[in-house]
Amino acid sequence: MARKPFTTTIDENLQKAFKNACTEKGDKMNEVLEAFMQGYIDGDFVIVKKVKFKVEKEK
Q1: Cα distance between residue 11 and residue 2, in whole Å
Q2: Domain regions of the chain by residue span
Q3: Longest dimension (CA), the chain
Q4: What does the pLDDT look like over 1-57, one tens digit per residue?
Q5: In whole angstroms, what is the distance from residue 3 CA to residue 28 CA?
Q6: Helix/strand/coil for 58
Q7: Which pLDDT score is estimated for 1?
Q8: What is the pTM of this model?
Q9: Could you tell me if 22 and 29 are in contact, meaning their C-beta atoms sit under 8 angstroms apart?
Q10: 9, 19, 22, 45: which has the fewest Cβ within 10 Å?
């Protein structure tokens, strides 16, 4: 399988926590990300988005 660089922007604190968790568990970050991507493609999990509205009376 050919390998291709993948870059994107994510929350800095999330990235640090993810990197630390991978290091502590002895996993490579790219392998964990690939597993998440494949799981998403396979429908193993879905993202649920919520929309909230707040209506306030004008003073």
Answers
A1: 28
A2: 8-59
A3: 62
A4: 899 998 999 999 999 999 999 999 999 999 999 999 999 999 999 899 999 999 998
A5: 15
A6: coil
A7: 80
A8: 0.75
A9: yes
A10: 9
Residue of 29, 32, 11 whose CA lies nearest to 19:
29
Q: What is the pLDDT of residues 44-57, one digit of tens each?
A: 998 999 999 999 98
Q: Are 48 and 37 in contact (CB under 8 A)?
A: no
36/15 Cα distance (integer angstroms): 15
How many alpha carbons fall within 13 Å on the CB side of residue 22?
A: 14
Query: What secondary structure does DSSP assign to 1-57, as a single string?
Result: -----------HHHHHHHHHHHHHHT--HHHHHHHHHHHHHTTS-------------
Q: Please name the amino acid found at residue 7.
A: T
